Write a sequence for this structure.
């Protein structure tokens, strides 16, 4: 098995994505930027605190059932938030992260996923499977942002009350409309798990949404099919460079997004020679 990865900071102060590569466990974790701008006493953001914590639990328990590791992570996340006087009644204050992890053995792939960080399995027969429990959960906010940038020329969404109100509404949908690991047990209803025979698999791409292709219309959903096609043609690292180049050239924000570059963490697993 050949392993490649990218871990690339976006336009923010720090990379809130975490990446896990071990002998048999591979995963990415996309920490959600806090609307309250929370940082711990070392200056680490809430998103990074959450993504690191869940990553470390998978490192500590390589042989436990993945759902059990998630339950341990939820308990530890909640304890950290209580210890830090975070108001758990306010979803926008909770520390939160996505999860996309696979575990390999000689003949079996085991996976667990929640949020919009997909696990993409490309089979030897040419078919593919996309494991992603939430898709385009910030669509309403992006559509609003697109309207404001195009019609009103607004460039700083954080200073616009209408945008902040919409983002706040989106956060209230956490573990109601979409899943995220934020200490809430309701996330268990959004988790995707399963197994697959290694002998059927050609490649696996595990990624946070920073690798997603920029798109003009957020209502159309993510361009997963095009992403898979480019990944197979380019490989992971050239795909990363391609996405960054498109974003860099888009100075007028033809592709609506909240910052020029999003954080990125991705792993490519290849099970045969291509």
């Amino acid at each position: 098995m050949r392993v490649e990865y990218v871990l690339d900071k976006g336009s923010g102060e720090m990379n809130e994505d975490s990446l896990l590569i071990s002998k048999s466990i591979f995963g990415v974790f996309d920490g959600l930027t806090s609307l309250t701008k929370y940082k711990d006493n070392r200056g680490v953001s809430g998103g990074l605190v959450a993504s690191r914590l869940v990553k470390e639990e998978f490192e500590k328990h390589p042989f436990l059932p993945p759902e059990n590791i998630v339950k341990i992570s939820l308990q530890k996340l909640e304890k950290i938030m209580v210890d830090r006087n975070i108001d758990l009644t306010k979803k926008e204050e909770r520390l939160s992260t996505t999860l996309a992890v696979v575990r390999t053995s000689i003949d079996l792939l085991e996976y667990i996923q929640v949020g919009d960080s997909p696990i993409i399995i490309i089979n030897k027969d040419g078919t593919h499977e996309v494991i992603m429990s939430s898709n385009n959960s910030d669509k309403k906010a992006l559509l609003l942002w697109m309207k404001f940038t195009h019609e009103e020329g607004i460039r700083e969404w954080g200073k616009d009350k209408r945008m902040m109100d919409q983002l706040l509404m989106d956060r209230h949908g956490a573990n109601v409309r979409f899943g995220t690991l934020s200490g809430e047990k309701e996330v268990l209803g959004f988790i995707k798990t399963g197994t697959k025979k290694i002998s059927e698999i050609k490649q696996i791409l595990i990624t946070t949404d920073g690798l997603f292709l920029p798109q003009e219309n957020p209502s159309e959903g993510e361009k997963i099919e095009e992403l898979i096609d480019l990944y197979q043609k380019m490989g992971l690292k050239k795909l990363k460079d391609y996405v960054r180049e498109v974003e860099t050239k888009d100075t007028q924000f033809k592709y609506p997004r909240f910052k020029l570059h999003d954080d990125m963490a991705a792993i490519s697993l290849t099970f045969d020679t291509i």
User: Anything to note?
Assistant: The longest helix spans residues 66-83. The first strand starts at residue 2 and ends at 8.
